[in-house]
Amino acid sequence: MAEFDTSHVKNIVLLGHAGSGKTSLAECMLFEAGIINRKGSILEKNTVADYHELEQERGNSIFSKLLHTKWRGYKINIIDTPGYDDFVGEVISALRVADTGVMLLNAVMGVEVGTDIIWDYTEQFKTPMIFAVNKLDDDNADFDKTVAEAKNHFGSKVAVVQYPRQTGAGFHEIIDVLRMTMYKFTDGGGKPEKLPIPDDEKARAEELHKELVEAVASNDETLMEKYFDKGELDEDEMKEGMKKAMIHHDLFPLFCLSAERNMGSGRLMGFIDNVCPSANEMPAQITKAGDTLTCDAGGPACIFIYKTVSEPHVGELSFFKVYSGTVKSGMELENETTGVSEKINQLFMVEGNKRTAVNELVAGDIGATLKLKNTHTNNTLHIRGKNYDLPSIEFPPPNMTVAIEPAKKGEEEKLSLALHQLREEDPTLIVEVSQELKQTLIHCQGDMHLAVAKWKIEHNHKLEVKFIKPRIPYRETIRKVADSSYRHKKQSGGAGQFGEVYMRIEPWYEGMPEPTDISVRARDVHNLDWGGKLVFYNCIVGGAIDARFLPSILKGVMEKMHVGPLTGSYVRDVRVCVYDGKMHPVDSNDISFKIAGLQAFRQAFQQADPQILEPIYHVEVLCPDDLTGAVMGDLQSRRAIVEGIDSEGQFQKVISRVPLAEMDGFSSSLRSITKGQAKFKSSFLEYAAMPFELQRKLIDEYAKTDREEIVA
Ligand SMILES: Nc1nc2c(ncn2[C@@H]2O[C@H](COP(=O)(O)OP(=O)(O)O)[C@@H](O)[C@H]2O)c(=O)[nH]1
Ligand SMILES: [Mg+2]
Predict the structure, then answer these.
(1) Does some domain include residue 705?
(2) Same domain, 94 and 219
(3) Which ligand ends up closest to the CA of 114?
(4) CA dist., res. 202 & res. 205, Å (int)
(5) 709 pLDDT exceeds 70?
(6) Whose CA is nearest to atom 7 of ligand 1?
């Protein structure tokens, strides 16, 4: 038998901007429940959650961690998450399996950009949310300002359940307007004394109590009627009303904390146990095939893998949530995605880097298993005879790209293995072997994300690597019409070669009119892999060139389009009309026409006012008002065009277009000029012409490189 049934398991995720106190709160929860007998601290580098060497080195969380605690008959699974948006993938996967989010607000800083970004995801998942205002012991803490910012940012659904009697060094008392009690802590924190609300706080407490009751009642008609009748709601009515409103994302209760001094976490856990929904009170999961999967320990076993970690000397750990049935050790489950059958040899409850073996885990619980054969993050495993496949976690697209190389030649194979494993653990890291740029690219979320990847490669794979600036995928095109002809003739030794081609090339655009002065006999439209089009027309009259040679001419043109004449970049958006030429009865063959086609195209291209296009990215930076100037200054030094500034709550969103060639180092530069108070998103927008002098530079550089012509 499992120790806790489904309704006694709660899954929470700790969220918030970096430094808001999530890891410290997790430590308090574990300590208060007696899971650990010494409370660790960030400073001493001995918390349960930040156990990773790299986290201790850097002093903040990088990976999400599964912990659990037991409080008054309930098991609370806690996922501690990193606050920097470089690691937002860890937050998203945790949100996928959590049933309540606890968003920490730093009472010194108020609502920060990290809070805002994570909030957007909680809205997508509709995760029931609690706010916890932390650091109330800090002399610069401002509770009222933090609450005002939260209401301004997240709306009137933010409902104050607790407020501090005093903040700063004197923070010892929390007034709870749900219980209408005052909790008084000693200097050491821990278990508070419960006292009546003092007279001088009664008016405020009663006003906030009324606000809270009204907020709960306003979400439910029966409760509203009861409230009108009695002028009050009893504890059970409040509990049920709050739970329902939280499930519908209509109420976000707000609590008070000092994680540093261990004040407030016990009451928070009590609220999680009594009010926050268990997995079976949340909307049922719908499989990809449309089946409803009820969270019931007696149902068919089904688990979903939300995270994979490769632990040195241990192997691959798969973290999962049981969405239906009961998983037992020794069970065989089928992986719906990969088709393999997996034996669940060991089941674990997890506390940071410690694992406790258990025999079974019921629906609604979260745990881990080891050494599955072919199972990855986002896979669903189920008992034989079902086809359950649960919706995947959608990870955000990457924000920045670098090229990676082993420091020593000859270690390419080792690097590719290391990257494979990195990718397995971290779905927000994308590895691309670019044929076009002849580089291995890492697409990631930001510079800290990259630093972590480097650390893992160096420590776990004992491989030195270097990051280099990625080449830019420029494009070449033309702006004018040009004609050319080329005769390829070779008669030295053996069989001769002969082919002559006349062609016209024009800039292609959607809806361009057909030629009027020549008649088109065959049309060939190619959507190019690298974007844009090649439109190839056979306009030969009177059999000047046999139709069978046209594919060879096209091949020659295509070959040159792969290695553009200006910089060797791909060519796009050209219409080619082959309208005349000559054949030789004996010497004409495919190769001759391919060469003639290629050379004619090259000549015409040079006369057609060619230009280089560069990739432009859409970049959005979210930052506090007083930092917009600095952010815009940095952007403008990157040839960016600032297109507008929108306000988002108390933040400003600077919207701009920036050439990819100038994005190098943006992530770290932004972090340093804003001290981590700004976040950015970037995505490919379009190709646009480069400034003339920069084009000149690229062309001159390319002319200097040794290159072999790709001519057969
Ligand atoms: N004064 C004060 N400092 C705190 C409190 N909670 C956390 N801290 C400190 O704030 C820093 C960040 O805490 P941490 O738990 O790592 O935050 P996280 O990034 O949200 O996990 C650490 O130096 C903590 O010691 C608190 O309640 N009061
Ligand atoms: Mg942390």
Answers:
(1) no
(2) yes
(3) 1
(4) 5
(5) no
(6) 21
Cβ atoms within 10 A of the Cβ of 335, count?
Answer: 20
- Ligand 1, residue 24: give the atom nearest the CA: 15
**Are 619 and 603 in a shared domain?**
no
Same-domain pairing of 375 and 453? no
Which ligand ends up closest to the CA of 84? 1
Pocket of ligand 1 (CB under 6 A): 16, 18-24, 41-43, 60-61, 83, 134-135, 137-138, 258-260
Mean pLDDT for 432-455 is 92
The answer, yes or no, to whether residue 712 has pLDDT greater than 50, is no
Which of 13, 14, 22, 24, when mutated, tests ligand 1's pocket best, judged by the most ligand atoms within 8 Å of its CB? 24
76 CA distance to ligand 1 middle (Å)? 21
Same domain, 335 and 364: yes
Residues 15 and 155 in one domain: yes
Query: Span 287-295, mean pLDDT?
Result: 93
User: pLDDT category, 39, cuts 50, 70, 90?
Assistant: confident
> Same domain for 463 and 495?
no
Mutate which of 29, 42, 171, 185 for ligand 1 pocket (most atoms within 8 A of beta carbon): 42
Pairing of strands 252-256, 158-160: parallel
Note whether 580 and 621 are same-domain residues: no
* Closest ligand 1 atom to 26 CA: 15
- Indicate which CATH number applies to the domain containing 616: 3.30.70.240
Compute, in degrees rounded to 10, the torsion defined by CA atoms 430, 65, 254, 197.
-170
Same domain, 94 and 243: yes
Q: How far is CA 230 from CA 96, 198, 233, 234, in A?
A: 40, 25, 7, 10
Q: Whose CA is nearest to atom 23 of ligand 1?
A: 42
Q: Minimum-distance ligand to the CA of 42?
A: 1
Residue with CA closest to ligand 1 atom 19: 19
Strands, sheet with 315-324, edge to edge from the N-terminal-most edge strand: 341-343, 332-335, 380-382, 302-311, 315-324, 366-370, 347-351, 354-358
Residue-number span of the structural domain to which 108 is assigned:
6-281
CA–CA separation, 92 vs 125, rounded Å? 9
The whole-number pLDDT of residue 1 equals: 65
Provide, rounded to the nearest whole percent, the portion of the chain with pLDDT above 70. 99
For residue 169, what is the DSSP state?
A: G
441 belongs to a structural domain: yes
Residue 392 lies in a domain: no
Distance (Å, rounded) from C-alpha 330 to C-alpha 569? 56
* pTM for the whole structure: 0.88
| pLDDT score of 706 | 57
CATH number at 304 reads: 2.40.30.10
In which residue are the tokens 């030794």 written?
493
Retrieve residue 486's tokens.
């080329």
pLDDT at 710 over 60: no
Residue 508 in any domain: the answer is yes
| Range 256-282 average pLDDT | 94
- Residue partners of 322: CB distance under 8 A and separation at least 6: 301, 302, 303, 361, 362, 363, 364, 365, 366, 367
Query: Do 500 and 490 meet the contact criterion of CB atoms below 8 Å apart?
Result: no
Q: How many angstroms is it from 189 CA to the middle of ligand 2?
A: 21
**Phi, psi (rounded to 5 degrees) for 434:** -90, 115
pLDDT of residue 711: 42
Last residue of a domain, one of 468, 502, 526: 468
Question: Cα 526–527–532 angle (5° rounding)?
Answer: 115
Domain count, the chain: 5
